[in-house]
Design goal:
Rossmann fold
Length: 86
């Protein structure tokens, strides 16, 4: 089992990546701007943790890094960043 951090997970490609990683048994850290509205992400399963982050905000990214860093047992070899600008 691996741990995978995915951003942009409230919908679309990011949400689908979370579904697929979780289905294969990975621990998924699903990151989105507004975790309070991440119902579809939470519904995936127990191996998905919903975290808030704004990737364009350095302080928000630093806070996420601190949260992940406090979990010494958690190794996160994968990071998938999904976003759309338009």
């Amino acid at each position: 089992m691996a741990a995978v951090l995915v951003t942009g997970t409230n919908k679309g490609v990011g949400l689908e990546f979370c579904r697929r990683y979780a289905a294969r048994g990975d621990q998924v850290l699903g990151c989105c701007r507004d975790p309070d509205t991440a119902d579809d992400l939470r519904a995936i399963g127990d191996n998905v943790e919903v975290l808030g982050v704004r990737v364009g905000d350095g302080a928000s990214v630093a806070e996420l890094a601190e949260i992940i860093g406090t979990r010494g047992h958690l190794r996160c070899p994968g990071w998938f960043h999904e976003s759309f600008f338009g």
